[in-house]
Amino acid sequence: MQMTDLLAKKRDGGSLSTEEIDFMIQGYTRGTIPDYQMSAMCMAILLRGMDDREILDMTMSMMHSGETLDLSPIRGVKADKHSTGGVGDKTSLVLCPMVAATGLKIAKMSGRGLGHTGGTIDKLESFPGFSTAISEETFFQNVNDIGIAIMGQTADLVPADKKIYALRDVTGTVPSIPLIVSSIMSKKLASGADVIVLDVKCGDGAFMKTEAEARKLAEGLTRVGRLAGRKCAAVITDMDQPLGYTVGNALEVREALAVLHGEKKGELLELCLTLGSLMLVEAGVAWSVEEAKLELMKTIEDGSALWKLAQMVRAQGGNERAVYDPALLPRAKIQKEVPAPAAGYVSHIKAEQVGLVSMHLGGGRATKEDTIDLSVGVVLRKKVGDRVEAGESLGTIHASDEERADKAVKLLQSCYELSAEPVKKPSFIKAIVR
Ligand code: URA
After folding, report:
1. What residue owns the CA closest to ligand 1's atom 6?
2. Fold classification of 331-419 (topology level)
3. 168 given a catalytic annotation
4. CATH architecture of 78-324
5. Over the stretch 330-350, which tens digit does the pLDDT of each residue have?
6. What is the pLDDT of residues 39-70, one digit of tens each?
7. pLDDT top residue among 240 and 336
8. In angstroms, what is the span from residue 84 Cα to ligand 1's centroid?
9. pTM: predicted TM-score of the whole model, two decimal places
10. Which fold has domain 3-49?
């Protein structure tokens, strides 16, 4: 088989066979196919697309390019969730303990943040002492004993994706639905869960700018998940502003704890109830989404979700008292309010730029090697649709030095767009794809 033939076939709109796709993915992973040919293939796929069979074949070939996690030593139904990437997305911190408290098993591998998006592992490390660098044996044991564990990626999962994603990043081929679906689903399938729910972000701060594109992606992801034998559902959510009210690691943990303590309602809780209810229904432990939502709410009302989080924090070496006393979490030295330059209604908050403000304060990484300050970030006081008076606070900057705080005040101001006319609050959950 020759890669040049496969390139010509895809260029002319043909469909690649299972063997051809496997030849290409395994060859590229091993280094027998060079970057320039794989770049051309990514562009041909972006322009010509792939049918469902090709996308599934590509996903499965990528999944088998490295190790896969066998979760069979864990008893019960294993559930996992994935978000296509957002700013202020602390969903896992609330969702995973709630779902574990209902009896489903959460055996989750998570990543660190890079650029303007945060990572669950960094957020969890806000609990003093908490470590996600646990052995696979401890991981399995914790899930069997307490129902939940979150670890950093240790196994060499999907090396094909690491190489292909790096190439796509520099060849203008990130926004291709077949490439995104195979990238995300190969990793999710390799992580071994029986039930996978996906949060597909849509809007300014997301890969998919429109609801129609997000729907296509959600349908592609769930179709591949089902064809691969997993239970799968997706939710399309708004990313035209950050999720919730905080961006920055310890600040996001505080917001998640407020939801788990039952002190805070709003879009974060709504999203967790929606994703969690889909998990319970797909797992076959609830008959309807409504019944599942009631069951999940009960885990907040009776404190069992908080208790699950506390158990996980303790089992992974962290100070579980911080779950009940957020004052024990890292706190930045400096807090500065961000005054509104004029009166009006908030019409838009540039999500990606808010992520960059947190990064400027030291809360995010420019490169994988950077160390981050867990205490810094942004608390938003106003969201889209809110009325604001001139000089009233739009948000609070949490910083470790004056100079960066002052610059962040200006940067956050420029993230806000105000309108003289009243603005309708956007609907946060746009659609459910099952
Ligand atoms: N997230 C991924 O893991 N891969 C993509 O291609 C896009 C988002």
Report:
1. 180
2. Aldehyde Oxidoreductase; domain 3 (3.90.1170)
3. yes
4. 3-Layer(aba) Sandwich (3.40)
5. 999 999 999 999 999 999 999
6. 999 999 999 999 999 999 999 999 999 999 99
7. 336
8. 7
9. 0.94
10. 1.20.970
**Rounded distance from Cα 83 to ligand 1 centre (Å):** 10
- Spatial neighbors of 11 by CB under 8 A, at least 6 apart, are 44, 48
- Which residues belong to CATH 1.20.970.10 in the chain? 3-49
The number of helix segments (H) and strand segments (E) in the chain equals 17, 13
- DSSP three-state, residue 201: strand
Tell me the CA–centroid distance for residue 58 and ligand 1, in Å. Answer: 14
Domain ranges in the chain with CATH number 3.90.1170.30: 331-419
Residue with tokens 């996906």: 198
Q: What does the alpha-carbon distance between residue 10 and residue 20 come to, in Å, rounded to a whole number?
A: 11
Does residue 187 carry a catalytic annotation?
A: yes
CB of residue 221 inside a 6 A radius of ligand 1: no
Q: Label residues 390-410 b or e (16+ Cβ within 10 Å = b).
A: eeebbbbbbbeeeebbeebbe
Ligand 1 contact via 183 beta carbon (within 6 Å): yes
